[in-house]
Amino acid sequence: MENETIEITAESLQKAREKTPVGYRVTSEQIISTGEQEIVIGKGVTIGVAFEDARSRIPTSVKVLEEEELRPPTQRIITVNASNEQMARAKVIKEINYEEQLHDIQLAIPGRKKLLGLIKSPDSYKVTVIQNAIVRVTFKSEARIRLKLRKIPSTDELIVSAKKLKDMAYTCLYMQKQNMENVSDVPLVQLMGNPSELAIDNLRVLTTMEQIIDSFEIILADAKHLFPNNKAITEFQFLRDTVAIKCPTDFFCYDEKIKSVIAKLDTLINVLESHQYLTRLEQDHVPSSRG
After folding, report:
1. pLDDT tens profile 47-73
2. Strand partners of residue 82
3. pTM, entire model
4. Residue boundaries of the structural domains of the chain
């Protein structure tokens, strides 16, 4: 029962999913690209620079649908009086809005000394403030998904696998009974005081049962995918919690939990065999196309 990972590309997610190979079921899906329209905003001192900014953030191999100019670049000159350039810059930054930026500052008129040079009037600065151009680029990439696939087994393979799990469960049942016989002479108080002793004896049983349950759920998922119109299969339920160990005393009745798994496996095997029998019966009665 092979497992594969593939990537599928298509115009949309739906069409990508429709390209899933026949004979496989999807066990997990990762969306790499949705295939929907996306927008990137670019900014720059000129329209050209703004478009370059936007395009630099667009993935390769996409289809550009539209390029729009949202706002042209603007420039204005303001005059600021300050004792030095640093103070002039601070004044400008405080006055302009968040979309503007200080582009250039030049000393226009130096301050004049007064009162025998004891006092100096502020310098006058010419400040260029610009507002970047803004553009919008709309593009669309192909949808891409990464799928983990499981090859759907035949009915015969499902039955064989379920019977193997049943045999493994019977082995666990025998081992569990042996474990209980080994601790039957040990007082319950002593076991409860040192549950690790009992847990170690049952570790192999518990580990094997976990493997059986994991495989059981996979077989059941395969069967439901293979026979979506068979209610006996699609409505079949198996609850993992029914065999969970929730407290140390559960070890003493774990054989009953194992028996419940065997019963569920028996039921699934019977359903699969019945479906297989009816299918073959129908095929035997299909009239030949010849003659």
Report:
1. 999 999 999 999 888 889 999 999 999
2. 123
3. 0.57
4. 3-69+139-146, 73-132, 153-284
